[in-house]
Amino acid sequence: MARKAVAPQKKQVREPEFAKRINEACDNHPDCPPLHYGRLTWLVNSFKTKFNVEITSETARKWIAGEVRPRPNSIALLAQLLEVDLAWLAVGSGSEVTREESKVRNAMAGGAVNLVAGMIEMDGGHPAFPDPKDARAKNADLFAIIKGAQFSFKVTVGHPDGGKSWQFAIPNSYRDVFVLGLVRNGPFQWDILELDAETITKNRQSKGGHVVVTVDKRGSAYVVGGHKLRQLESFAERP
Questions:
Q1: If pLDDT is split at 50, 70 and 90, which confidence band does 105 have?
Q2: How many domains are there within the chain?
Q3: Residue/partner pairs of 189-194 with CB below 8 Å, 24 or more apart
Q4: Would you state the pLDDT for residue 2?
């Protein structure tokens, strides 16, 4: 009598939220390969070279798949390796702003997007707000056609950090958009800065779901890590 074939047992995903966070951190790390294209090998090799800690490819696979949760010491090393906030990676939260501060910042961010859209339109461009159902809306606050070229803008408002310094919260997807940083320097007066991807990458502080860049003002110039940021004067020409 022939034996009945036994279906392979499906792997159980016990930590789906952790898997989501670790993969997001990997996706946003400039050196980590894409999933299924060397990610596991990179994790194994990085643990060995950076921390002298040996893990197996199967262990890394289980972390990525959410089948097991790493031990606390391994999570700490992962956070250090992937340059993300430990609390965010471990439990999905961190030292973020309060709910009331978040409401104020969201209102400022929405107003800043409208301000930029108005400036673009007044300079002859054609702004458009992303449809919430559009997948691109996750990364961009504003689309615009300026002198025949299409741009995807992410607008972020600088928050004072004492003296003449401002902090900008920027999404991890900053490489896919044109990031504009707004600094308020007086009643109805704003400076608009280009926060380019290279400068962000070199000077970022990771906060889990986003990064923070600190900008200093020296004289009339805005500087990040010794690099002078470009200040936009108008949208009459391509940024």
A1: very low
A2: 2
A3: 190/115, 191/222, 191/231, 192/116, 192/119, 192/231, 192/232, 193/222, 193/229, 193/230, 193/231, 193/232, 194/229, 194/230, 194/231, 194/232, 194/239
A4: 54
Q: Is 92 a residue whose pLDDT tops 80? A: no
Residue 36: CB partners within 8 Å, gap ≥ 6? none
* C-alpha–C-alpha distance, residues 236 and 172, integer Å: 29
Which CATH number belongs to the domain containing residue 81 in this structure?
1.10.260.40
Contact indicator for 209, 84 with CB cutoff of 8 Å: no
Read off the tokens for 159.
């928050």
Q: Is residue 153 part of a domain?
A: yes
Ranges assigned E (strand) in 118-208 = 126-128, 142-146, 149-157, 159-160, 165-171, 178-186, 189-194, 205-206
Please check whether residues 125 and 44 belong to one and the same domain. no
User: Which position has the higher pLDDT, 77 or 94?
Assistant: 77
- pLDDT tens-digit readout, 22-75: 999 999 898 999 999 999 999 999 999 999 999 999 999 999 999 999 988 898
pLDDT digits (tens, 9 = 90+) for 108-162: 568 889 999 999 999 999 888 877 666 666 788 888 989 888 899 999 999 998 7
Residue 186 structural domain? 99-232
